[in-house]
Amino acid sequence: MNPRRASIVAAGAALSLAMAFAATNLHGGAFIGGLEQKALAARDAAGGKGVKLAFRDRYGWLTRHPILSGGERLNAATRTRVAAAVARIPGIGGISWDHDGAAVAVPLHCQDDVKRILQTRTIRFTEASARIDPASERLLDEVARALSPCVGSIIAVIGHTDAGGNPKANLALSMARANAVRWALVGRGIPADGLRAAGVGSAQPVAGLDPSDPANRRIEFSVISPAPVKPTPIDTPGPG
């Protein structure tokens, strides 16, 4: 390539990167600033004054995954309470403690968020099949949004049935339904390599319910291997 042209291309790339950086900080600054104020209030309420919160990564990009540091004089219980208080704030993707220069992950709260979503609603299927009822599509949208902060972890999708019918058929049906939900989440942006489908049939009924109760037909989610999410240069939620 012509040296002059190469220098022009390099200059253009540098300008594009600078503009991307500026745009991210311009549009994300207000959002992150709001998260930071809420996080500081949660930190103080949990008795964590002295703990520092960093909402920028080592490259200077704004992030929803703050790094906590300091608070060496606080006991372990207080530090845990502070971490949990900050992690519960809506919009926080996950947090970590800076321990001797290394970030140590704090488990995310998305599993609890999904559990709350499914407390009064159920992902439904057509009778005796693994086809997801169209009426559950919006519910799956909510579940996917709640699971997004856990991207980077291993998320188990577990299918259950009641005790009616053939046990082997129930086991196969529960697995097929778990797989159907897994692929529905993949279609909503959750990476396939982080999702695991499992079917347990009627082996794990809801506590206090008769094993034959239809309410045992359900899908549950479990974050079985929490891991920190690596912040990306543009790491603020999109509209909606």
Task: Please characterize this protein's 3D structure.
A hairpin with a 5-residue loop joins strand 1 and strand 2 (62-70). The chain has 240 residues and is of the alpha/beta class. It has two domains: 3-106, no CATH class; 110-225, 60s Ribosomal Protein L30, Chain: A, CATH 3.30.1330. The protein is built from five helices and seven strands.
Unreliable stretches: 6-27, 226-240
Task: Look up the CATH topology of the largest domain.
Answer: 60s Ribosomal Protein L30, Chain: A
Return the string of H and E elements. Answer: HEEHEEHHEHEE
* Net shape: elongated
- Which structural class matches the secondary elements? alpha/beta
- Count the strands? 7
Task: Please state the average pLDDT score.
Answer: 78
Radius of gyration: 22 Å
- The first-to-last residue Cα distance is 44 Å
Strand order of the largest sheet: 1-2-3-4
* CATH architecture grouping of the largest domain: 2-Layer Sandwich
**Would you identify the CATH H-level superfamily of the largest domain?**
OmpA-like domain
**Can you identify the CATH class of the largest domain?**
Alpha Beta
Main sheet properties = 4 strands, mixed
Strand content: 15-25%
Please work out how many helical segments DSSP would assign.
5
Please bin the fraction of helical residues.
25-40%
